[in-house]
Amino acid sequence: QVQLQESGPGLAKTSETLSLTCTVSGDSISSHYWSWIRQPAGEGLEWIGRVFFTGIGDYNPSLKSRVTMSLDTSNNQFSLKLSSVTAADTAVYYCARDYPAWVRGVIFDYWGQGIPVTVSS
Amino acid sequence: DIVMTQTPLSLSVTPGQPASISCKSSQSLLNSDGKTYLYWYVQKAGQSPQLLIYEVSSRFSGVPDRFSGSGSGTDFTLKISRVEAEDVGLYYCMQGIHLRTFGQGTKVEIK
């Protein structure tokens, strides 16, 4: 059974960098693209970006200038860094399994439970 | 950027009655591989979203057959043939042909 678990600080300071990690179990990080998605309280889902095991990433154009994603294949983890955060970045952040790398499949069939992050001065 | 527009944003349904949600994309979601990358997800209270329908009309594993998807190009529909209490939640369409974009979400509640 594939499982994803987000981890990281639940609080970030305005103008600083938010850093989160997603640990994957039950699947190899090299098998799929991996995405981050966020949801402000009471609002809808916003895709942040995705990363492939090569380190290549695709990002939401509205966040691209502030987002960096990376992978740690040795620990089967992938990470999100969002710089220059403001209160508008306060949200629940989800990691999810994206499209398979080598075969046909589906997008976002497995999700983490989500981690709430608050940005405050 | 591809914009996804869902209607209605809220739906109140009597148990046993059908429900329908529309999703329109600003560009065609038909890919050169012949597949149309339109997905539906549901988010129940306090939970992570879960996949319902992929590529317009294919039900994901374990999804009841009262859920069905249809459409092509830029116009898509999710239908619940007979709504049950457990279907309450937020329903999102998403395009996967160019990056990823979600619709605003449709809240389904029981009358």
SSE topology:
The complex is a heterodimer of chains A (121) and B (111).
Chain A: E1 3-7, E2 11-13, E3 18-25, E4 32-39, E5 46-51, E6 57-59, E7 67-72, E8 77-82, E9 91-100, E10 115-120
Parallel strand pairs in A: 2-10
Antiparallel strand pairs in A: 1-3, 3-8, 4-5, 4-9, 5-6, 7-8, 9-10
Chain B: E1 4-7, E2 10-13, E3 19-25, E4 38-43, E5 50-54, E6 58-59, E7 67-72, E8 75-80, E9 89-95, E10 101-102, E11 106-110
Parallel strand pairs in B: 2-11
Antiparallel strand pairs in B: 1-3, 3-8, 4-5, 4-9, 5-6, 7-8, 9-10, 9-11
Key features of this structure:
heterodimer, A: 121 residues, B: 111 residues, mainly beta, 4-stranded antiparallel sheet
What does this structure look like?
- The complex is a heterodimer of chains A (121) and B (111).
- Chain A is an all-beta fold and 121 residues long.
- Chain A contains no helices and ten strands.
- In chain A, the strands form two sheets. In chain A, strands 2-10-9-4-5-6 form a six-stranded mixed beta sheet, with no helix packed on it. In chain A, strands 1-3-8-7 form a four-stranded antiparallel beta sheet, with no helix packed on it.
- The mean pLDDT of chain B is 97.
- Helices cover 0% and strands 49% of the residues of chain B.
- The A-B interface holds A 35, 44-47, 50, 58, 60-61, 94, 98-99, 106-109, 111-114 and B 1, 37, 39, 41, 43, 48-51, 54-55, 60, 90, 92, 94, 96, 99-105.
User: Alpha-carbon distance between the termini of chain B?
Assistant: 37 Å
Q: What structural class do the secondary elements of chain A suggest?
A: mainly beta
Give me the count of strands of chain A.
Answer: 10
Shape of chain A: globular
Low-confidence stretches of chain B: none
Q: Strand sequence of the main sheet of chain A, in spatial order?
A: 2-10-9-4-5-6
- What structural category characterises the helix and strand content of chain B? mainly beta
